[in-house]
């Protein structure tokens, strides 16, 4: 009879474990218009899970293993809420004392401690959990925590590189796990920001990771994936993909400010279009073009005008232009300018990783090996078309014939919104 009762107890524990997983699925996928509705649903479902756990007779929780499992499950259910719950932390602490090899209990305890702001103790929990064996979920949490710790550290870039490394380790354990790929995408995107928003390769790595995450059907309900992927596309100047991504994120979670991000991009595009189609005085254009045409170049570069460039990187090519306007917009990076070439053709120049006082209206710029794109797409029945050149490195540009001073480089953190 005892073994039969014990079997029933273990079956109930399995049901509670399933209920706890369902709770976390609600937390990660349910985003009602009113956030209070989510808390209410979590409270109702957690009460049911705890009631089920309480139905296990106390005599069937006598072994340390069963007591540890019950403490862990109770703590996990209580910790599903966004705020720190001391009761959850207490139960999880008991669980790891009763069974130190319970890796998931260490993970949950670390998450609980993180919520109250004790980041180093949380990291200790994750490392203790990993000492029990490799675990993709714990590696992802450790990677996230390292990005959090980077925010207040002097060695931000090093911290984020550690985050990237742990994210890659998680992927090696399960190459099809969308959450691990999503975490790697976030780590690479954070690296782009903390180093001054100039490393184009980090954006491409982030985008590839997000695209791999999207292959996992479980990730389709994650609005943050859409938001962050749209953020990458914004900085890659894939405007149409950025707009559709932010719009998809807004539909999945109205609490995100994705709609505002859409409006910022539209505002920028409208401003660029108005400047390009505005009446720039013919005399000013002719004077600017004449000044540009007289600039001499190094023999290692071939002079080109904007209409001669190929899509993408133009090796051994130099594009000379005159800065007509600095374009103010709502984000810190990149810097946008309206420039004209020697044929009086205007284009948009976007600069990354450079202080905004490095170039002024009226300056003559020489762009070495320019990255060119012809933007042509429609959004909400409005067509946008313009020529665009992107510059990521100081070495790609001369201002009034001179190299840009290294002190004009931005190599410190640029604050930007994404879900880390």
List the helices and strands and how they pair.
Blueprint: H1 2-29, H2 35-54, H3 64-78, H4 86-98, H5 103-115, H6 119-130, H7 136-150, H8 156-173, H9 178-194, H10 200-214, H11 223-235, H12 239-252, H13 258-277, H14 282-293, E1 302-304, E2 312-313, E3 317-327, E4 335-340, E5 346-351, E6 364-368, E7 371-379, E8 382-391, E9 397-399, E10 402-403
Parallel strand pairs: 1-3, 5-8
Antiparallel strand pairs: 2-7, 3-4, 3-6, 4-5, 6-9, 7-8, 9-10
Helix pairs in contact: 1-2, 1-3, 2-3, 3-4, 3-5, 4-5, 5-6, 5-7, 6-7, 7-8, 7-9, 8-9, 9-10, 9-11, 10-11, 11-12, 12-13
Quick structural gist:
The chain has about 425 residues and is α+β, with helices and mostly antiparallel strands.
Describe this structure in words.
- It is a single chain.
- The protein has helices at 2-29, 35-54, 64-78, 86-98, 103-115, 119-130, 136-150, 156-173, 178-194, 200-214, 223-235, 239-252, 258-277, 282-293, and strands at residues 302-304, 312-313, 317-327, 335-340, 346-351, 364-368, 371-379, 382-391, 397-399, 402-403.
- With 420 residues, the chain is α+β, with helices and mostly antiparallel strands.
- The chain has two domains: 2-191, Alpha Horseshoe (Serine Threonine Protein Phosphatase 5, Tetratricopeptide repeat), CATH 1.25.40; 280-408, OB fold (Dihydrolipoamide Acetyltransferase, E2P).
- A hairpin with a 7-residue loop joins strand 3 (317-327) and strand 4 (335-340).
Number of strands: 10
CATH architecture of the largest domain: Alpha Horseshoe
* pLDDT averaged over residues: 89
Number of domains: 2
